[in-house]
Amino acid sequence: KAKSIGRGRLFLFVPALRMDAMARRRYGLELHRAVDEGEFLIFYQPQINLMSGAITGAEALIRWRHPERGLLAPAAFLPALEGGTLAATVGSWVLNEACGQASYWRRNGAPNFRIGINLCSAQFRVGDLATEVIEILDRHGLPPEALELEVTENIVLDNDDIVLEILDRLHKHGVGIAFDDFGTGYASLSLLKTYPLTRIKIDQSFVRGILNSKRDASVIRAILDMARSFDLETIAEGIETEAEKNYLQRERCDEGQGYLFGKPMTARQFEMLLGINVNTKVRA
Ligand code: C2E
Ligand code: MG
Ligand code: MG
Ligand code: MG
């Protein structure tokens, strides 16, 4: 009995930080296994030209098919990867997989298909990202303009000059650079001025407010005006209703993405949406 009390006490005195480290370590091991066992997969969410209604491409969104806990969204595991080399490893996997898939679709019925891929901070710190991306494009025969890399303000603020260097190189190569979650950060304007961007992704929090908040509607209009004066393409995220779509159309936002057009889906489901009849399995 004394022993169990002692144990309990010992447990109580383990500092919270150490517990976190242990939990993180356990999770880290699981994530390593996930990489080795190929438990990650990519969902694709359509992006639509708001004028024509045509599918222009898709954003690649990672999922983890966890053996016990089922399908996990990025919020459940990306934070645990934060900063580590494992994050860069997973990022490389996504780049290679999604570029391969995009190239395949371009060669099999969707010749102008564009793929959007999210980057994380760690990818700018480990290895040579620009060279890696160019090699991946070559490997899959994917033209640079078919790839759009999505960066957030955090990535830029975390890494400073190196991000500018890498993005400049990729931009000169012809790769698209989208500013993700635009409007939610603190430095959006100064980044707009400095970085080689080709597109702004208007954050879904503004889209959500369009219909009942004059302010959100004004923010969107201001972002679109600004984008035009910087000669940037625009896409609005998180469009869920016809009314939201109609507003954005009227304000001449170029493209849209959201549940109204399609939720993130498997490659196979996406092929059905594209109306191309190919067998994804045969390719692998
Ligand atoms: P994000 O890049 O801003 O991606 C958009 C998120 O909004 C996705 O969440 C998508 O499923 C969700 N979404 C799209 N349309 C709608 C809508 O109409 N309504 C609502 N409520 N949500 C919508 P998801 O897939 O959970 O991804 C969350 C975040 O995780 C992404 O935000 C991105 O920052 C990150 N992420 C996802 N995949 C990757 C990846 O491969 N690499 C990195 N570094 N980050 C990723
Ligand atoms: Mg994104
Ligand atoms: Mg976003
Ligand atoms: Mg986001």
From TrEMBL:
Protein name: Bifunctional diguanylate cyclase/phosphodiesterase
Organism the protein comes from: Cellvibrio zantedeschiae
Phylogenetic lineage: Bacteria, Pseudomonadati, Pseudomonadota, Gammaproteobacteria, Cellvibrionales
Keyword ATP-binding recorded: no
Domain EAL stretches: 24-278
Statement: the UniProt record of this protein carries the keyword Repeat: no
Annotated keywords: Coiled coil
Top-level division of the source organism's lineage: Bacteria
